[in-house]
Design a protein that fits this description.
The complex is a heterodimer of chains A (about 230) and B (about 300). Chain A has about 230 residues and is an alpha/beta fold. Chain A contains nine helices and ten strands. Chain A has a single domain (about 1-85, about 150-230), classed as P-loop containing nucleotide triphosphate hydrolases (Rossmann fold, 3-Layer(aba) Sandwich), CATH 3.40.50. By secondary structure, chain B is mostly helical. Classes of the chains: A alpha/beta (about 230), B mainly alpha (about 300). The structure holds adenosine-5'-triphosphate (ATP) and magnesium ion.
């Protein structure tokens, strides 16, 4: 289980996350909703150790991880799909996957599994990442993170700018991972997509988790969306 | 000597210089490419390589070839270790902030230079080449009786200079293989392209930086060890390699290793040729002029990618 306790974090002197608490259990999808600038991406970066915690703590399966150097966090099995994909653009598809595999010393079998989930990448192994279409790039970003065989998966707006068929492909992958017992934290702007897959929905506002509800509670009270997301 | 043989001689001399410059500039380019650090102390790592090569051959003694081989292996290793330590103790602490790293490496430049002056002294000292056979070179002439081969007086190169060219070529190929084909190269490229994401995939970026800074300095030291049997070791010898490396890295395109090699050969060769026919000062002037032109008309360099 991934757990954030009373976390303060930010950039230099700018504090973004304030006394934020949150947890994600294995086999569940926790969706984060919030306005632009609410601190969702910062929250994910602080889990990865890329933004340092100023106070509070982060725990993974009972181990405290917020004081580890950033590069050790993925080795514990946290896969990260950053906002905007952040592929290694000048590398090939195969090399991008290789980086993912190396993070936890995974071998050819894991690579095969991942490529079976995204067969389109198999045909493009030697193509440079920056020449892929937007949808293919998102597949690669997802595949790269899955190369870690993560126990926790962080997805930061994975469907940004994608067409519906691509969105359902990514969604199918996420749902399959939930079945395998992966704890999933998903930042998503599209409310209808969230309602389809989420087990719990947490609203982020001003760097805090202000409210956590189930999708059915959200259905029942649409004014929540109006209040926290502005739709 | 006729013009033809004279030109060949100048080109060979230029190629020797280009070889050493290629190694030195590759070091600077690697450090800038991966770390975005402008290492003003790069020339001093070159100098340190030469001075250590002298010390090592002096201490080892025995036949020149043996002493030189030891120097060729140990001097770059020592310089690389010193540079990696400087990275860990200084650059890492200032978080690789661009302006502060420039100031810090300027400080490093003076520290290395003055420590060398205090210990090694102000003298220039030679290192005996491991072998130095003079190889005469033939020239061709088209006369009335067809092609004639003859051996112009003074047209020759030493076996050692050929070795320098060969060693640089080998090192360049090895570096290419590491960067393009190995896991280490993959890690270096990932760090270069996106430091933050590399960390999110388990790359220990700080250690990679120390390694790259050490490797960059070791390449300069290797170039210096190769040059020291031709051009003596002296505590002020780091200036020219620094200037020329900067010229090369800018012309080749910041961060492009391929561009660095092409530009180093271009600058090294033309420097050699112009120095032989005209003067070394003119050669430096033209190289600097070329940099200015590149900066105006093609700021990304010959092989650099356009800024996004
Ligand atoms: N590198 C940075 N340096 C300084 N401030 C930053 C940095 N990155 C983000 N911020 C600030 O932190 C706040 C939260 O940003 P964050 O990216 O976490 O928001 P978000 O909820 O992900 O927004 P969006 O929905 O637009 O992706 C913003 O005010 C932003 O300006
Ligand atoms: Mg965001």
């Amino acid at each position: 289980m991934l757990e954030l306790r009373n976390l303060d974090a930010g950039y230099g002197k700018v504090q973004v996350l304030r006394d934020l608490s949150l947890h994600a259990r294995p086999g569940e999808i926790l969706c984060l909703l919030g306005r632009n600038g609410a601190g969702k991406s910062t929250l994910m970066k602080s889990i990865m150790g890329l933004v340092r915690a100023q106070a509070g703590s982060i725990w993974l399966d009972g181990q405290r991880i917020d004081q580890l150097p950033a590069w050790q966090v993925p080795r514990l099995g946290i896969g990260y799909i950053p906002q905007g994909r952040r592929l290694f653009n000048e590398m090939t598809v195969a090399e991008n996957l290789q980086i993912g595999l190396m993070a936890r010393r995974k071998g050819a079998d894991v690579r095969e599994n991942v490529l079976n989930m995204f067969p389109r990448l198999r045909d493009r192994l030697n193509q440079r990442a920056d020449t892929l279409s937007g949808g293919e790039q998102q597949m690669l970003a997802t595949a790269r993170a899955l190369c870690l065989e993560p126990g926790v998966l962080l997805l930061d707006e994975p469907t940004e700018g994608l067409q519906p068929s691509m969105i359902s492909l990514i969604r199918a992958a996420v749902v399959a991972l939930r079945k395998q017992g992966v704890a999933i934290v998903l930042v998503e702007q599209r409310v209808e997509a969230v309602l389809q897959v989420a087990d719990r929905v947490t609203f982020v506002e001003n760097g805090q988790c202000v409210l956590t509800v189930t999708p059915s509670e959200l259905h029942a009270d649409e004014s929540l969306l109006h209040r926290y997301v502005g739709v | 000597m006729d013009f033809g043989p004279h030109l060949l001689l100048a080109m060979l001399e230029g190629l020797v210089q280009a070889s050493v410059l290629t190694l030195t500039a590759l070091g600077l380019s690697l450090v800038f490419g991966v770390m975005r650090v402008v290492n003003v102390a790069h020339g001093e790592f070159f100098m340190l390589g030469a001075v250590l090569a002298w010390w090592i051959t002096f201490l080892v003694g025995g036949p020149p070839a043996l002493a030189f081989i030891v120097a060729l292996l140990v001097a770059p290793l020592l310089v690389g270790t010193i540079a990696a330590a400087a990275d860990w103790l200084v650059l890492r602490r200032i978080d690789y902030d661009p302006e502060r790293t420039i100031v810090a490496t300027i400080g490093l430049l003076y520290i290395i230079q003055q420590l060398t002056l205090m210990s090694y002294g102000p003298d220039a000292r030679p290192v005996a080449p491991p072998f130095n056979t003079r190889l005469a070179l033939p020239w061709f002439e088209f006369g009335s009786g067809g092609v004639q081969i003859y051996w112009p007086w003074g047209l020759s190169i030493t076996s050692y200079k050929l070795f320098v060219i060969f060693a640089a070529l080998l090192t360049g190929l090895a570096l290419w293989a590491v960067m393009a084909r190995s896991r280490l190269g993959l890690i270096l490229r990932a760090t270069q392209q996106d430091r933050e994401t590399a960390q999110a995939f388990g790359v220990p970026v700080e250690r990679v930086y120390a390694l790259v800074f050490g490797l960059g300095a070791a390449l300069a030291a290797l170039g210096a060890t190769l040059v020291v049997p031709i051009q003596q070791a002296h505590y002020l010898m780091g200036g020219d390699p620094l200037l020329l490396s900067f010229i090369v890295v800018i012309i080749g395109g910041l961060g492009s290793l391929r561009g660095t090699v092409v530009a180093a050969i271009l600058i090294g060769m033309s420097d050699g040729i112009i120095s032989v026919f005209f003067s070394p000062t003119l050669a430096k002037m033209l190289a600097t002029l070329l940099v200015a032109m590149v900066l105006v008309f093609r700021p990304q360099g010959l092989f650099g990618s356009k800024p996004a």
